Every structure is written in C-alpha cells, then in structure tokens.
Amino acid sequence: MVKNLVVLDQPTALLQRCRGCSDTMYQASNVYFICGFAAIGGALFGFDISSLSGTLGTQAYKRYFYNPVSYTQGGITASMPAGSLLGSLVSSFLADKYSRKVALQISCVLWIIGSILMTASQNVPMLCIGRAVCGFSVGIASAIVPVYQSEIAPKEIRGRVVSLQQWAITWGILIQYFIQFGAAHGTGGGPSDPDQPTAAFRIPWGIQMVPAVILFVGLFFFPYSPRWLASKDRWEEALQVLANLHGKGNARHPKVLAQYQEIEDALKFEREQAVSSFKALIEPRMLKRVALGMSIQMWSQLCGMNIMMYYIVYIMEGAQIASPLATASIQYVINVVMTLPAILFLDKWGRRPSLIYGSFGMMTWLFISGALQQYYGQPNTEETRTPDNSDITWIVINNRPVSSAIVSCSYLFVATFATTWGPVSWTYPAEIFPSKIRAKAVSLSTSANWFWNMVLAFAVPPLLWNISYKMYYIFAAFNGAAFIHMALMAPETKGFTLEEMDEVFDSGRPAWKKFGRRSRLEELEREIERGNVKVSVPAGGRPVAGDPEQGVELKKVATPPAGTPIS
C-alpha cells in the first residue's frame, strides 16, 4: 500500500492551454497506428536489403556493371551498411536535440536523395555513393524507430508494437523484391536477355522513394515522444500526449497519471545523479547493458539472416532447383508471414525464450544445409558452368531431393529468424536503457548491427566464392555462441515499464532466474484509482490548489525515485 499523498493539479486546464497548435491539425492518438506508421522507417531498411537481391540475377545488371562478383559485388553491397553505420552513430544526436520524430523526417529526405543517385547510376562508384546515402538514412531510421515506438507504447504491448519494425522490414524486402521481379521479367526479353535494358533495375530503385515521401509527410500528424518532451521540460505537452495515447484525452485517467508520475520520478532521479549521458554509458552497471544491446544486434547479423536476404539468388543457383528468382521469392513471403506470430505473442512468451530457442534452431538448419552441400555438391567447373550459374563455385547437380532439402533448410532458417530474433533484436535494445542515455545506447547497439552487416556484406561473396559450403558451418557456430551468451546474460524484460528496467538489471539475480516483482506502474495506477495517491502536475512552474472533486486532504511530499519498490 502506498502511504503518501502528493499534490494534485487540475490537468484539464493545462491541456486547454497547450492544445493551441493541435486544435488546427489532426494528431494521431492510436498507439498501434502511430507505431505501425513509424515502422515505415523499417520498410526503408527492407527496401534497401532487397534493392540488390532481385537485380543480381538479371543480365541488365551484370552487363551494365561489368558482371561484379567477389570483392566488387561485396563492395557494392557493403556501401549501404557502411553508410548505415555512420547514420546510426549520428542518430542519437539528432533524436536528442530535434526529437525522435524530426530525426525520422531527416532520414526520409536522405533516403530520397540516395534513391535518386542509385536510379541515375552511371557506374559502380556512383551506385555505391547512392547506396551509402540510402544507408545513412536507414542507419538513422533503424536506430530511432524502435526508440520512438517503445516510448509511445504501454508496457503491455510494447513488444508487439516494436516488433512492427521487423514486420515492416520484411514487407519492404518482399515488396521491393516483387517490384524487381516484375521489372526483371517485364523489361526486354526477361532476366536472361543479354540485351535487357537498364530499366530492369532503374525502375525499382526509383519506386523505392515512395515510402519515404509518405513517411515524411505523415509524421507531421504524429505526436512527439512524451519522454522526449519531458526531457526538454515540456511537461504540459508531455501530459497531453500521454492523455491522448493512454486516456482517450482524459488527463485524470489513473494510467495517464501513473505514467506521468513515473516519467517525472525517473527524470528527477537521473538529473540528481548529475552525470553526463556519455559518462553514464560507461558506468559499470550500465556498461553491461550497453554490451548486451550491442551483442544482440551483433548476433542478429552473425546468425546469417541478412546474408540469406542479400545473396539468396546465389544460394538458389547453387541448389539448381527451378528459377532462382522465383524460388527466392518464396523465402521473402515466409519472412513476412512468420513474423506475425512474434507480433501477436512476443509479449506473452517473452524475449528471452525467443533469443535462446531461435539461436538453437538457426544453428541446426545451417549445419544441415552445409553438410548436404558438402557431401552431395561438387565444384562448378567448365563442364557444369553456364551463363546462369557463372557467379558461383559450388553446385548440386541432378539430385533433386538434396536440392529440395537445401532450399527447405533455407526456408526453415528464415522462418525461425522471423519468429524469434527478427523482432526481438529491435525490441530488446530499445527497452533496456534509461531515458537519459536511451537514444545514445540504442544508437551504439544499432551501430553494432550495421558494422557487422557491412563486414558480412563485403566478406560473404568472397566466402561463397572461395569456401562455399564451409560458410554455413561458420554461421552455425556463431549461432551456437549466441545460444550460450543469451542463456547466461539476457534477463526477461516483458511486463515491465521502461522506467523499471533498472530494477530488472540491477537486482543481482542471474539472467536465467525470473524477476518475480510485480510492475511498480500497476501498483501506482491502482493506488491512484483508489484515491490513495494524488499526482502533482506543474502549472507554469507554480504549485496549484487541490482538486475539489477528489475530496481529500492534500500534502506535498517527496516521491520515491524510479526503481524504488512500492510497499
């Protein structure tokens, strides 16, 4: 039972004063709609991942860019994650200074510029520059979208709505791939036409500007993060946003007041620490979390998923089963469909099981796929090489059952990732840090994703060319290491607010032991609803009279800092 009472202001009067700008412009208030729309930033990531996979197998791309393979193709592919690495590192400064929303709008402008450069590419260097600019945009969006979503959403559905980022990525991959598939087969004589016009790849690269334009314009009608507003001492606006999001416009709603109080307590506690956000990042208690967030993003790359997305056409060419472009397209559909279970149930089954079982599953499929190629494949020599498979060195010939098994393992690998690591790798880092360092810490975590994305995008074509099936064993071993790491170091975070993560991580419990304490927010909300606690709301910086409708004696007392258990 909470024993203290704190001053209650009449929040309705505050809202009337700060609604001036929003009265003249529609502002979204549905959490699912806001977080789903913001996830278009993730779709840009998907568009960029797929912006090459559908063109690699076309004669137009091979002819115009002089059949890039090995290190040349690796450089083209890696230019995007290289730009993303820089964008993710810059993102926190934009998000903290200008807001999460404005940072996303800046990323949209950069995406449009990069897409124009790609569409107009005259040579490999120009293509790389365009991809790097697009990558810079995606680096910003991929770091800030989960932060914005996690700061908007209530704890009960936070995993679900942040998972929309991953679902949007899968939709971006799928849509762009089929745009490219259509352009490849509808331009000239198809992807095998040696004289196929360059429109086969320029059309898809031009179309990819559309979602950025939609996101840029739409964000004008979306709220700022209430936690960012509070960090800038724009408390009245923060209260309005919370009321619209969680109280249907009612600032007296217990859930709104409880969240407002918790944000205020957490921010007050952080400011009393008088530690810069950069110094806070390397404090021992926080460094462990930063390392965990960066590790999760690192493993999400070293598991091998994006390699499947970038170079799936090469894998299907090696399997020698049906059309490589058509066979690869099935994988993208699986990626979209199998992300849905995570969106629906992540907040029920939790983050930790997804990380552990997902690593084990992906390890299994990669070991099987590598073994099948090792024992049933052969070098792609002059006798077996054709214009359609000249860019691979290892091939399975005239063995349909084995080829089908290899393709099936690829599909099962994608399904496992989509249901587990795909959504959790964005959700977990976005929710484990305190407000003061959240944007910077997530920026660092995301930069780890893009660093390893860049390394692998450049390294995998030479690996496929030089060691072929052994590459699968390497990524399987990475998944084994991730399985052990997550089992030992990743505690469960479902059911706790962002402000309660300090309790989860600083409890001293091993990661595999459940943190049994109930959410502080739920207790606070119940006590407010019962009238046992009244929440102080600032009015122009001055204390205000009590609310006569509540009929209680009001006393001003100190409130406990975030992380203090309610007794």
TrEMBL record:
Residues 537-567 are annotated as: Disordered. Signal peptide: none annotated. Keywords: Membrane, Sugar transport, Transmembrane, Transmembrane helix, Transport. CDD domains: MFS_HXT. Residues 34-494 form the Major facilitator superfamily (MFS) profile domain. PROSITE patterns: MFS, SUGAR_TRANSPORT_1, SUGAR_TRANSPORT_2. It holds the Pfam family Sugar_tr. It is a multi-pass membrane protein. It comes from the Eukaryota. It is found in: Membrane. The keyword Membrane applies. The chain crosses the membrane at residues 31-56, 76-95, 102-118, 124-148, 168-185, 205-224, 290-313, 325-346, 355-376, 447-465, 471-491. Belongs to the major facilitator superfamily. Sugar transporter (TC 2.A.1.1) family. This is High affinity glucose transporter. It comes from Podospora bellae-mahoneyi.
